[in-house]
Structures
1.
Amino acid sequence: MKVRVAILGASGYTGLELLRLLLRHPQVEITALTTRRDESPHIAEVHPQLTGQLDLRLEKLSTAETAERADAVFACLPHAASAAVIAELMETDLKIVDLSADYRINDRATYENWYGVSHPDAGRLGKVPYGLPELYREAIQGAKLIANPGCYPTSAILALAPLLQAGMISAEGLVIDSKSGVSGAGRNPKPAFHFPECNESFSAYSVGTHRHMPEIDQVLSDSAGESLEVLFTPHLVPMDRGILSTCYAMPTSQTDSDTIHQVLADYYREEPFVEVVESPPATKQVTGTNRCHLSARVVRGRVIVVSVIDNLIKGASGAAVQNFNLMHGLEETTALI
Amino acid sequence: MKVRVAILGASGYTGLELLRLLLRHPQVEITALTTRRDESPHIAEVHPQLTGQLDLRLEKLSTAETAERADAVFACLPHAASAAVIAELMETDLKIVDLSADYRINDRATYENWYGVSHPDAGRLGKVPYGLPELYREAIQGAKLIANPGCYPTSAILALAPLLQAGMISAEGLVIDSKSGVSGAGRNPKPAFHFPECNESFSAYSVGTHRHMPEIDQVLSDSAGESLEVLFTPHLVPMDRGILSTCYAMPTSQTDSDTIHQVLADYYREEPFVEVVESPPATKQVTGTNRCHLSARVVRGRVIVVSVIDNLIKGASGAAVQNFNLMHGLEETTALI
Amino acid sequence: MKVRVAILGASGYTGLELLRLLLRHPQVEITALTTRRDESPHIAEVHPQLTGQLDLRLEKLSTAETAERADAVFACLPHAASAAVIAELMETDLKIVDLSADYRINDRATYENWYGVSHPDAGRLGKVPYGLPELYREAIQGAKLIANPGCYPTSAILALAPLLQAGMISAEGLVIDSKSGVSGAGRNPKPAFHFPECNESFSAYSVGTHRHMPEIDQVLSDSAGESLEVLFTPHLVPMDRGILSTCYAMPTSQTDSDTIHQVLADYYREEPFVEVVESPPATKQVTGTNRCHLSARVVRGRVIVVSVIDNLIKGASGAAVQNFNLMHGLEETTALI
Amino acid sequence: MKVRVAILGASGYTGLELLRLLLRHPQVEITALTTRRDESPHIAEVHPQLTGQLDLRLEKLSTAETAERADAVFACLPHAASAAVIAELMETDLKIVDLSADYRINDRATYENWYGVSHPDAGRLGKVPYGLPELYREAIQGAKLIANPGCYPTSAILALAPLLQAGMISAEGLVIDSKSGVSGAGRNPKPAFHFPECNESFSAYSVGTHRHMPEIDQVLSDSAGESLEVLFTPHLVPMDRGILSTCYAMPTSQTDSDTIHQVLADYYREEPFVEVVESPPATKQVTGTNRCHLSARVVRGRVIVVSVIDNLIKGASGAAVQNFNLMHGLEETTALI
């Protein structure tokens, strides 16, 4: 029997990517797509790529209607809006993957400070597994609600967590210089993402103020076993998709490239979606896949780890399906290979 | 003594390109920049590219104030808005280059039908020279007001007008298949020009309905000496700037590539900005310049002329400066080479 | 039981795309990858995208070795080289999809004239089905060898064949103005495809001389029931993948957009991969899929059909898998949705 | 009287950019273009962008011929080849700007170690001014030979040198994470720069091994007054031109964004080509110009300076013209604004 799936907020890029993946999932039936607007466009009007592939309209559904139509929900809603809806959905039998940031931050004050809003479901903070199976697979398997990670955090955490856990690098002075394709900014037209503005240009943005910084802090602190603060700088690359993070760290004792490579390779040996490779990777190696490629070097006494993911897949919708598979006891890689 | 220049509507891409060209013009002093909004941002806030190069703010100026501050005006306003302002400016001593479409169409009904608005200065239609020096240099030299051509029309007319004038090709059955970079769509963010929508994509648009079609009809009819209608199809190329038009025509008698090449080369022999080249040209050959490159072939009995221009320069701001130079008796190529 | 598949010449873009599709094919086991070079690199060295997904090396295999290792072959070899190998493979039990141009042209003189080589297996010309299921499904189903269509021809033929078959458009004066992403040029670095040369540029090439022109002639002549010659002009778009063809035709009698739309929609009603859509399509609508989107308009008495495909999938590897499925009696859409 | 200029090795991107700039230079006459090949193509065949603008052929010239034809030389030759030629040219009256790396490194062993060749003119090392006018204007003014800086070093040094000179940041632990457009890789087609390989992809390369690292070390050591070693990681951005460097440093005492901003602004107050701006800059702000935009932030106790330049202009040919102007006692900004 198939799992009936609803997607809340299906009109953006993560929604489209989820639909593409789920249409290939043999144990899934997509039964509802919601919108917060009053119009009910056919999904092929919203995503012409799906013409002839899915005959559903976007609908404005109540919690009860959603619960009746589906067994599981992917929530692709803006922050704060997401937790408001999920607080209600938690009263039903639905299993939920939340792709917003609402349940990623354990500390209410940190969330409210960085996101500038009051949390609509603050009581649940700290109790929702962070949906990075490579770190928290067991907690995900039994969960009813998962906080799907941010795209930048996924790329940075996969690069650094094993080295922090192994005590190979210092928790002090971590620098994460990240670069993302423009789809990470979402589908709403804004001046900064108007084609002739960002095409043929490369820029830094949100220097010191990006909301993914406390998320990275939190998860890497957990890996390090001590509270740490990273320096995270995001940049905009004139391409559709892909994130590359160049991570700089001080080793705790003298080391070399091979040793660091080996620690990472050992950590990810059984992982279906993480590869530790020799050459510095390009984002194109993982475009369209749920994979992360990592490469490490020791240069002038410091450790450099480069990681690449597809921001819309391993950084969003692919991870969401991976979590969905785990939550439902399905083969973890279904629809992802 | 320098010509004092005002730019009306300086915040778009044609405004920026005009400023870049005029900042290099030894006989020009830029004295005013206008906006129709209430804010008065510094030009470096609007165009960070100009930081440190021009110390002016955008201002909301009356006609009288503009006439006091400047000797000449470049109007980069939307259609209809432009003619409304220019009707007033014509009462002053200012010389005016209008970069909108308002004075390009000679026939009022055609204008109002294609642009869907009532013309605010219809009495002047048909009396304003069309600012393509390669066809109408004499009329431009004595003019007070010039209608600066559209970008697509410039590329198509330069390719076909000499062959029509020479009677080498039929006025019947002309097909103009044009491709433009995204800056041609202006600087206002819209879904179609959101980076992840149009990047890595190529599309046709406004098939059979683009407003440059009657403009091409009109000028090529003049060249042919008979009324003609072209089939014009624009397409969007994922790049900043450049237009390539592939033009298909029936020869009036049997001909070959060399003959057609020669007619074009003879026509443009003295022109400073048009080159007839052997190989099919790429838009990049003319990016950032006021030049047009043309190449012709006869294939299976039909004539194919390919033309390339930079849509923002020869297709807009460069042509405007070329017209300005002619109107003011300056060396035609000043600031353009 | 799975079909054991060998890919001859797996190091290019069509090879990579084939591998991606076949790795998802439940009835396929990839058992051999060949190269004509002496080195035997691991496939992950050739295509880092496949790291961790396929553990095979490229090998130099004889015909006998290939026949022993596989039940079916996809040949991604250069023209002439392909037919030389296939002539031998036809002596074995292998089923073969040839992605080269070698068996597409029925007439030996035409082939040798356009490709500039002697055909190594000329006796078979005219007896090999052209692998466009939308036109020749029955012939494909029983075949041992299929000539997989060229990318440009696929986009042009799907747009025009139904209208020619229905007698709606004239066989005279067809103009096909096509635009392709750069992957269509293959994986060998050449000056024209060096990033800073073709990025931010759009160009026409091979005007009147492209080898896909006689291929289009041949298939559309078959559809028209009379010998015809098209005017075909290819252009290079600064993007990875996608072809858009803008096709111009004279209707045989007065008609309108709805009528043309309907003829196309009726023709493709049962087709799993062709959609007739309302708005002029963008290549991005079909990127990464085996689909073709078509849109038609009648403008100023002439018919314009715009078609889009992914040149590497519906234009090459996807069509090859579709043909493979038909040849082996498998569900036609397997691995393609 | 004009300075007669020869360009050695005019067929690459720096050669093209030099020609564009020098064609606008009122005190320059371009009199010779050299090549090391036997063919003598017209410059318009090599750079179609220059059609109709410069009527010269590339020639194989001896030192004596060059000295006869020109008063000044720009050498755009590969490393080692450059110094071999310049060693001879130094015997003539020519003034020389060397755009290669040959005279940038003062220490012979360092040069030979990083460049892997024996230096053909090692005796001159350490005596040639480094052509960054913002740091070494006086030395440049009297010079006969200038070592034009590397593109990455220019972007990094302009960001960090004033802070090191002022003692605001530590010489320890500098991280320079740089991103460059593809034109920085030159005009020779290679697999890594084949359009479908690097388009829509972002990658790190030469991690810990890039030859610009010792060049940055050397100049920043000079600014710091002590020997230092930076961590420099270059990345490839899918765009034509532009470099952005994100530079991380430890302040020597507690500081804030405004203080750092002020030190930089004060340092560059009189500089015609460096602007210290508020918002993190985008490379597009300086594309096509000789300018550098800088922006600074203090985040979590560390200093981040972001700098942008056009790699072909301020990072190569524009700087070369700026140096040329200084060497010849011309207005420094001629042809550059």
2.
Amino acid sequence: MKFRTAARADVPAVLQLLADDDISRDRGFGDAPVAEDVDAAIWAAFEEIDADPNNELIVADDDGEVVGTCQLTFTPGLSRHGARRLTIEAVRVRADRRGAGLGRELMRYALTRARERGCRIAQLTTDKRREDAHRFYAGLGFTASHEGLKLAL
Amino acid sequence: MKFRTAARADVPAVLQLLADDDISRDRGFGDAPVAEDVDAAIWAAFEEIDADPNNELIVADDDGEVVGTCQLTFTPGLSRHGARRLTIEAVRVRADRRGAGLGRELMRYALTRARERGCRIAQLTTDKRREDAHRFYAGLGFTASHEGLKLAL
């Protein structure tokens, strides 16, 4: 298993992973594009992530097959004596590869990247309905100390 | 009241606001620097924020006096059809200016910036002990749909 930054060619597989999720389907993201006709907004987002040193789209690559993903955002800040923080978004493991420790490996890779980039805190939010996810992140040492608030614009 | 991007000269006042908070004090950030001897890590963080189009350090400026602050991070992503999101961090209103609607004005400014930047979601986390904050954000339309997980590195 190799963890690496996503290339353009990985985008359809990443979209498939993002769509393959009950809660995401509720957001109207059911039928993910899987071919070259990914829409312009998504290509633009990929290009922006790819060009931004503070954003990394990560894939778990199993001999050429994308089986997991997450996005890392490194944010400079004045709080905590100028500490950089890592925010993790859009964590997914392919349905047929769950329960075998891949998510844990992916998160360990994310936390290693955070340390390499000098982050002193890592954070993420997870839907309150995802009870398995809460246990998973608690096992990695995360503390549910905060409310995660969202507002659609 | 004017809301604007922070300049170098605002940094000591912003640090004072970040320090003036019971929970932050617990993190060992009790005695904020208030003069030119702000340490190098904090200046480096400020310079990085200032140079990054996806980060904005905002101040509420009342006739030259900094009385509130927050940091805005705009993050491109493939989820939700390539939607950009706003993450809000480090929201503070000076103790003697609380309860008069300034926090609400500051957040409305943040959400206006988010819309201008094409964000389709705004998010933040708030310590579960900050009960006043939960009511405040609920009043602005935020939903506490997620757990906010943190891990010190």
